[in-house]
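Can you give me the bound-state structure? Components:
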Amino acid sequence: MSAPNYSFASDNTAGLCPEAWAALAEANAGRAPSYGDDPWTAQAKKLFRDTFETDCEPFLVFNGTAANALALAALCRSPHTQILCHETSHVDVDECAAPEFFTGGAKVIPLPGPDGKLRPAEVERALLRGHGVHYPKPGALSLTQSTELGTLYTPDEIRALTASAHARGLAVHMDGARFANAAAALAARGVSPADFTWRAGVDALCFGGTKNGMLTTEAVVFFNRDLAREFEYRVKQGGQLASKMRFSSVQWVHLLRDGAWLRHGAHANAMARRLADGLRAFGLRLIQEPAVNGVFVEMTPAVYDAMTARGWHFYRFVGDHGYRLMCAWSTTPAEIDAFLADLKQVLAPA
Amino acid sequence: MSAPNYSFASDNTAGLCPEAWAALAEANAGRAPSYGDDPWTAQAKKLFRDTFETDCEPFLVFNGTAANALALAALCRSPHTQILCHETSHVDVDECAAPEFFTGGAKVIPLPGPDGKLRPAEVERALLRGHGVHYPKPGALSLTQSTELGTLYTPDEIRALTASAHARGLAVHMDGARFANAAAALAARGVSPADFTWRAGVDALCFGGTKNGMLTTEAVVFFNRDLAREFEYRVKQGGQLASKMRFSSVQWVHLLRDGAWLRHGAHANAMARRLADGLRAFGLRLIQEPAVNGVFVEMTPAVYDAMTARGWHFYRFVGDHGYRLMCAWSTTPAEIDAFLADLKQVLAPA
Amino acid sequence: MSAPNYSFASDNTAGLCPEAWAALAEANAGRAPSYGDDPWTAQAKKLFRDTFETDCEPFLVFNGTAANALALAALCRSPHTQILCHETSHVDVDECAAPEFFTGGAKVIPLPGPDGKLRPAEVERALLRGHGVHYPKPGALSLTQSTELGTLYTPDEIRALTASAHARGLAVHMDGARFANAAAALAARGVSPADFTWRAGVDALCFGGTKNGMLTTEAVVFFNRDLAREFEYRVKQGGQLASKMRFSSVQWVHLLRDGAWLRHGAHANAMARRLADGLRAFGLRLIQEPAVNGVFVEMTPAVYDAMTARGWHFYRFVGDHGYRLMCAWSTTPAEIDAFLADLKQVLAPA
Amino acid sequence: MSAPNYSFASDNTAGLCPEAWAALAEANAGRAPSYGDDPWTAQAKKLFRDTFETDCEPFLVFNGTAANALALAALCRSPHTQILCHETSHVDVDECAAPEFFTGGAKVIPLPGPDGKLRPAEVERALLRGHGVHYPKPGALSLTQSTELGTLYTPDEIRALTASAHARGLAVHMDGARFANAAAALAARGVSPADFTWRAGVDALCFGGTKNGMLTTEAVVFFNRDLAREFEYRVKQGGQLASKMRFSSVQWVHLLRDGAWLRHGAHANAMARRLADGLRAFGLRLIQEPAVNGVFVEMTPAVYDAMTARGWHFYRFVGDHGYRLMCAWSTTPAEIDAFLADLKQVLAPA
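Here's the bound-state model for the whole set.
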């Protein structure tokens, strides 16, 4: 009945989480050196290393498109290269050819795969394409964790893919726009962030801050430090070096230091499960069982239109009947319940 | 029985045709201004205009990859663009991402289609992909005439594609690496070069010289003169401006002025038909009826190996049993007959 | 005597101004559509148009390097172009070749000129260089207002430069990292923001938010709307489209709506004058009379070292004896006085 | 009196030398594998190694702009780099920003130096510019041998520059558009091609074929083989891989195998000296004593106009009175004498 401005459109329509807000306030007291020579940046770097239990090399940039494109440029190192990715991946379908632009002309090659996930056989088949210099050489394999369809790679699946990639000369990139959701889900199975990144062969991770409740900050974390060489120049030339970097770093300090990033991820995941349970109870078909914070469900366009008319905001995603409902760190049980209550009315026969 | 070094591997393994050779000799007498300020370049430009019956704007570059990539860059005008092409097209699979490089990061999108040809429905479906600025905007549609599978678009088919493209903001490029073969085949049906290029809506044509018997020269012919603006700068910056341009221009003069280019195309096409007839007579299945100078035929790997062992050179092209045999301006009936004689022995039961 | 962590190193070591902070708090209440479909973005666009008294086209990006480089790419439209700028300009010496990168290969050409300012004669002399396609064609002229040496172009000076530029095919870019300081200084002479931008022939302005007290936001304002065509795609492909754009827009709303941006600029300028007056009173030579918020003064390295030892932070800028002291929106009279008090002790004979 | 179409405009207005012509004829007999899998390409590679007495890695491309730009891209390896060169160098003033384009955005920095030559002090001073990531990192030093002013670096001068460059992280490129002229002049002093290239620290050489009498071929010779890694992909993606490569290779075979390249260089140099002696005898001032095949002389615009009216073609090069007269492999003593005879009449008082 009510039509609040609640939204399941994206996990980036939420605002800043309390920890991020407190962090900004802390950094805003007084002056500090610019371009990363401040104490928070050093502290954030240490926290990334602690989080991943390894001497990784983290860099902060402004958004996910830049993080992915710059990381891929660093992994490919030249424009005459191939970037393999899943056909639903953000780097192929949602970044306006930013990877092609930042690499200076690499070829992004979308590959099929069930559940939004790549498999080694698909990667190997792709690498048979072309002959010699007439086709770009293997550059990078890009994996999305969690995927665009709300699924998760297991560490074993990642390991199989990275082994196959490395054997063929591809460096491995992980798009972790929703890394926190993935890490929270995997933590419940006893899998650490290290386990499904560098220990599974990932060379560089884009660790999303925005969808985790932060403002204008994403981290590019190099586990393969050779590939981080000169990355600071790429960041600067790419228009991604913050003069007031402390405002980015301080947010990571507040989110990483006591696990708030994981708690927010876990909360969003739990909200998605609550929502999925409600939808299933109404007899709607879930396209994927929600592994993280996205719910993919089938409904008729008429139902969608009726929900939209009641002020709910979410997107059609797959075919004509597949819809995506995203939960965020800020989603509340009350929002879920209000949505389900409205949906019940919409679905009810006259 | 004999095993000469005859080759059906490609139409660029042939040497220079007599007219091209005579042309080079003519240009080599004495000095001439560089960078196109010579009399042959002016004459060649006029001959292109006569050939196409319109005030087109031709430019000469060194090879087909550069011709295609520079033309596409001119048609797209910016890196945040899509280039649509057939999934077998040279611009996607044989140019090492040169279109991505010369455009500065456009996305080349391969599309399926029977017989190596695109259809408007496929183009329109492709343009539904992506939303707003998150996906590159329509840039160029690239058609290959004759196609990589040795087929031809009719003028009506081209017109339907260009109408669809122009309505959606795509400029239209024609990769004419084998334009002479296409033009010769269509001339037999009363279709002129103008009819299946600008009259059918093509904005820019890459007119292949190399496969027509010339040395290191391809023409980029703009029918849409607006899109030719500043192209001379692209050519120079792209490393494609010949200082001794007269040696390129003079070849076009000699080939275009009395139709030698068409005669060479027609000859290669006729040789392909002779070869196809012979193969069919042996009971081999032709994958495509040869419309131009390529013959696509099925044979077993064992037969292929036996022919290779006898010194014949050609490539596997489709699947495990599809082979391509290319004829050139220089292919002789005797070569065809020798090939067929050897094949007869190979195929003969003991 | 005291050694606080006061800094005159840069105007980007300051934090966020109160208006920017209040703005962030306002945007953080609840959810809002992403990518600019929020109410603040619409409001900010209107305020830019009001501020400049014209139907300009503003875009928001993250930092100054990206703003300049993307704007120059839009003005040049192709990589075979020249960008003329002053030899002290940020686009040449402080952006790691970002303009070369974002244009895809334009040539940035630094020119001399007294007081950090270009003159038409210098621009015209530069354009005599090169011949035809062997040199890139005129693309853009970049002016910095206020300049890197703390000086100001008058509207007449700008008009003379833009007239000269437009006559030669150069579009005109203004790097306004310190636009607020310039506008405040010129307002005191009765010159409006419109007067020294579009009315003086500027095609696109990079309007700095960071140095005006905002967080991670700069505006690219196109007065020549033709040149803004497709800029939204450049922003996205360039990794500069904020998903949570409301946090950028809301700051502009709060700064522009009642002139806070100008007050902050005027305050920083006033602090620079107070500082300059003090330095002059000590007998130090000012390299430039401060027109805006930077003070350029000569002192000995020994004096500089002594001040550094007392905790003051600022940079050597010109030669061995020229130092730069930057004031910000947050600089207080007390800071100035503390600096001068320390300097007095340093300068005092035993 | 006579006004033949003789030209001293450039050494690329000449045609093909007899060896190049014979080479083309040889390659034109029959078919051969494309893309360098022919016997001449293998032979040419061996001859480059013999000529330079080292296991260098040569590649053939079409023209000098592409050779320089691709070589610099290989040496810099990334777009966030500086390329230092002399302010008269072809890579800065005559290639339409091709180095910027092929590197994807490197900054080309022209430096002054007497006689068209760089000195270590100038290189080192240039490298003081910029701070940290705010300025592109050292990429490549480009030297031109012989220079654009017809002068020569000695091996010692080159060694001093390459030592300085390597110590600062710059790879060293030599633009040898007129390498044959330089080699011939230095051979007379007992200096071998190896002595003033790799033995003096040069990493990659662009060895000009066009100005030595060949058609559409230049060699990029890597002495530092690490830097040649993946260069074959750059060549292909850059539109510089010849399908009929044998026609390029065979010319190098014929020119290199018995020293014809050096004889042509020596001849052009001798013609320049004959011309210079004649000019000096008329009392004209030589701007540079000709070390190779270019004569730089002062004359009045009136004299220049009168010579032009008599059909002689050459260019103003420095200031208002400095003119350049280039000799080629094809220049004859009779041409020189005819020029001097005409000039005598022009200079003669009534």
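A couple of observations. Chain C touches chain A through 50 residues (CB under 8 Å). Chain C has two domains: 18-256, 260-347.
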